[in-house]
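Worked problem 6 (solution included).
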Amino acid sequence: MRATLSAIISLVLVAAVAVGVGGLRANASFRPGYQEQMVFGHCLVRSYPRETRAVVREFLTNAEITQRYPKIFKTNCLTTDLSRRDASFVEGGLPYLLADVVNQQDFLRRPLADISKVPPLVHRVVPQPFLSDPETIKRDNARNAVLRLVFALDKYGECVVRKSPEGVAQLLRTDSRTDDETAAFGTLSEALNACLATGSFHFSRAFLRGALSVNFFRLMEAASLSAAQTAKAPD
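Solution. The predicted structure is:
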């Protein structure tokens, strides 16, 4: 049975694994308000422009972010009340937040690039588990269940952006959890439903916005780089 838009934006993602500021944490989520999140995100992007864009471009998992870019969490961005909150990120949460910020800075304040000729994006897949002890297998299975959903949603996000880049841009120009955002989702209903495969997803509207934001960045960046290279090419 095909899921509908109303079902998409009302279902809740149940996430079991998250990464905290100090390392991996279980059964946690990042819960400050949208404005606090955006202030934190802007600070990270300002402090680490290359690293934060890489997190979005490669859609890194929590463990990969912690391993590759540990300094992201050793920044003055966390010397506020946010750092005293036991802040942590559900899988996908940090790339989603950073994508909202870098899209505002890089692509939403100028005419949109033509993404029609950008090759299909490469999307993450959950690796096959290694043989291990039962407790490790149990922990990894819980984490991988979340990753499978997040990665499937990522592929869906590319389809929607390709079908309606202007509609997604309109959505990303709104603040999260507002009437304007709800209205923007409404304008995307045709693309959202057209991209649904058989079956259903279970995720929140925030995660849907995040998947659209990550794929919007990846597609716009690829199109912009291609256009720049074409412009520089000799006649």
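Discussion: Residues 21 and 73 are 6 Å apart (CA to CA).
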